Amino acid sequence: QVQLVESGGGLVQAGGSLSLACTAAGRTFVTQTMGWFRQAPGKEREFVAAVNWNGGRLYYADAVKGRFTASRDNAKNTLNLQMNDLKPEDTAVYYCAAQWREDPTTGQPMNSDSYTYWGQGTQVTVSS
Questions:
Q1: Across residues 65-80, what is the average pLDDT?
Q2: What gap in Å lies between CA 60 and CA 64, rounded to an integer?
Q3: Contact 17, 86 (CB under 8 A)
Q4: Contact 72, 29 (CB under 8 A)
Q5: Positive or negative: CA dihedral 112, 63, 120, 106
Q6: What is the largest CA-CA distance in the chain?
Q7: pLDDT value for 105
Q8: Residue 103 — pLDDT band, cuts 50, 70, 90?
Q9: Phi, psi torsion values for 106, nearest 5 degrees
Q10: Spatial distance between the Cα atoms of 12 and 73, rounded to a whole number of angstroms
């Protein structure tokens, strides 16, 4: 059974930092793109960041560029998201996702439809 488990969410004041981690079990994603998405109450799920298979390519939503840093550790089958200078509008449930494509180069990193596996999500709340 494939599982993606997020951790590290919580409550933080505006301007603070949080670090999220996603651990994969049941399958290795070392050849696949992995990403982070988020969904705020009453809003659609949106792309946050993605990392290609070897960490050589990073993708970010404009709203988080310069504040968030995504990375991965293939030896540990984990994906990370360092979030700095958090703002109240960053409040959302954050989801880890992994693609599973025979040809990994065909996936679209910012498109949720390209992702096959999803975690349960972790809540991030930023107070003003």
A1: 96
A2: 7
A3: yes
A4: no
A5: positive
A6: 44
A7: 81
A8: confident
A9: -90, -10
A10: 26
- Give the integer Cα–Cα distance in Å for 2 and 89: 31
Contact 81, 48 (CB under 8 A): yes
Distances (CA, A) of 92 to 26, 50, 57, 68, 123: 27, 17, 25, 15, 6
Residue 30 has pLDDT above 90, yes or no: no
pLDDT for 124 beyond 90: yes
Q: What is the mean pLDDT of the chain?
A: 95
- Closest C-alpha to 123, from 95, 93, 82: 93
pLDDT > 90? residue 84: yes
Show the tokens assigned to 25: 């079990």
Cβ contacts of 16 within 8 Å, gap of 6 or more = 86, 126
Could you report how far apart the first and last alpha carbons of the chain are, in Å? 40
Please report where in the chains the tokens 């990403």 appear, as a residue: 35
Q: CA angle 119-105-93, nearest 5°?
A: 20
Kindly report the length of the chain.
Answer: 128
Which of 27 and 110 is assigned the larger pLDDT? 110
